[in-house]
Structure prediction request, 597 residues.
Amino acid sequence: MKRFFIGALAFIGALSILFVVGVVGLLMLAASSKPGVPSNLVLELDLQQPLPEYTLDTSLAGAFGEEPTSLRDVVEGLEKGATDPRVKSLVVRIGQPGSSAQVQELRDAVKAFRASGKRAVAYADGFGEAGNGTGAYYLASAFDAVYIQPSGDVGLTGLVMETPFARDAFAKLGVKPEFGKRAEFKNAVNTFTDESYGPHQREATEAFGGGLFQQVVKGVAEGRKLTEDEVRALIDRAPFMGQAAVDAKLVDGLRYRDEIHDELKKQAGDGAEFLYVDKYLERAGRPHQTGTTIALIYGVGEVLRGKSQSNPLSGGQVMGGDTVAAAFRKAVEDPSVKAILFRVDSPGGSYSASDTIRREVQRAREAGKPVIVSMGTYAASGGYFVAMAGDKIVAQPGTLTGSIGVYNGKFVTSELWAKLGVNFDTIAFGKNATFSSSDQGFTPEQRAQLESELDTIYLDFTSRAAQARNMPLEKLQAVAKGRVWTGEDALERGLVDALGGYPKALELAREAAKLEKDAPVRIVVFPRPRPTGQVLSELLGKHEADNSDDEATGHAAMSSQVLEQVRAVYRVGAKLGLTGQGAEGRMLYAPLPEVRW
Prediction:
C-alpha cells in the first residue's frame, strides 16, 4: 500500500511537469504563428488604468510573455503607426491615465501621431463622473476630437494635493518619531512629526502644484483653441454635464462608443479593422530595431540594495542596486553599444544602493559610453542621485525632480508596547548597540552622531550634484535643501538639460554617439530578456548564474517570492515603527505628493 501511494504521488508529479511543459510548448507554438497586420486598420487603446513604466520578468505571467502594455510600448506603437500606411487613425478610451509626467509623455506621442496627418480621437463615458477628471481631460485635449456619451460629464475641476499628518495619532498610540533631516524642505518625515503643512513644506507644495496646474491650463488652451483665461474660468465653473460641455467647447459632441467606432471605420475605408496598439506593435515590430546599438536600462521604483524585484502587495517595483549596476557593466562591455539611455522613475531610497548605481553611470561615461537620462513620473532624492551623473538629463515638465537632501531616524515604540502589556528588556554590548533600536530613544551622543551622519551625506550629495551639473556648490545648495521641483522649474535651475520624453532622450543619445539626427538605431534593453525556459527554471529555484553579474541580473526563485510577500507585510510595520527596521534603506527618499486630478 505504501508503495502504491508513493507511485501515485510520483505519477501525479510527472503529470504536473508534463502539463507545465505542454503549456509552455503550446504558448511557444502560438507565438510562432502570430496573425499579421490588417491592410487597413484603426489603432485602439484603452487607458482605464495607468500604464506601467516597466515590468520585471519575475513571475509566471512574465515567463509566459503576458506582461502588461508599458508606456514605452504605446509611445513606440504610435511612432510606428504614424509612418505605416496601413494605419488610418487612432481611437483611445481614457479613464485613469496616470501621473502628470505619464500624461505628458502620452500627449507628446499623440501629437506626433497627428503631425503625420492621421486622425486621433479620444472618448470617455465621462471625465470624472462627479469626481475629478482633470488629468484624464488634460490628456484628451491633445486629440483632434473629444467625445463623451450623453450621460457623461467633464470634471475639469483643477487639482488637489493632499498630505496626511499623523503626529497626534502616533502620540495617542505611544509611538515617538525621532528623525533628523537635511535640509528644511526635506519633508518626507513631516507626515510623522507635524500636524499640518509648515512654511517650507507649504511653499514647496504650492509651487509644485501651481506649476502642474499652469501646465494643464496651457495644454488644454492649446488643444481646444481657447485662451488660458477662458480655461481657468471653465475650471472654476466645472463640472459640466453633457450639452453644457459641448457649449463650453470642451468636447466635440455627445456620442456612444459604437457611434465613434462606426464613424472611424467608415472614414478608414472598406474592410477596416480595429487593433490594439500593443498587438499592432507585436505584429508589426518595434521601431528602432536596426542600426547603431543604444542600450536602454530601466531604474524603476524605490532604490534598495540587492536585486530588482516586484512588490507583490503594492504592485510597484524595487530598483535593485546590484541589478542596475550589473546592467550598466554589461552594456559597457558590449562593443556594439555606443550610448546608454537610462530611464529613471524613482522616489529614491537607500543611499548606498543609489551610490552603487551612480558609480556605474560614472564608469560608463569614463569608458566612452555616453549616458542620457530620461526621467519619468519622478526622479527624486536617491532617484536624482542615480541620474545626476549622466551626460544629459531629460524630464517631462511635470516630472517631480530634485529633493536633494537626506533624512534618517527611527520610531520609538516602547510606550506602544507597554500599553499592550509588552515590555522589552535589553542587554547591550557596545555603547551604541541600541542606536537603531525601536525600544529606546537616541542618547544625546547618538543624536549628535545622527546629525553628523546627515551632514556628511548631505555634503556628499550636494557636492557630487554640483560637480555633475557643473555648478558652484553654493548655487547647487541654493536649489537643493531637500526641495522638489517640477521638471520645468528644474530646467530653469540647471538640474536638468531638456524637457521631453523617450523621443527627446533618443535624440540626445544619437547626438552623444555622434550620429546623424535621423540615423537608424537599435534599442536593446539591458539586462537582456532571458529565454522562457531559463526564466521558468529560475522561478523554480534552479541556479543558472555563472558569475556575480549574471546573478544580479537574474530572477528570484519562486520560494523567495513567496517569502518576500510575507516580508512586504513586515515592511509596512517597519514604516510605522512597529518593528526594529524603522526607516532603514530610505535615507534618500521623497514620497510623491498625492495629487487628485
User: Anything to note?
Assistant: The first strand starts at residue 41 and ends at 47. The CA atoms of residues 414 and 439 lie 5 Å apart. The chain is about 45% helix and 20% strand.
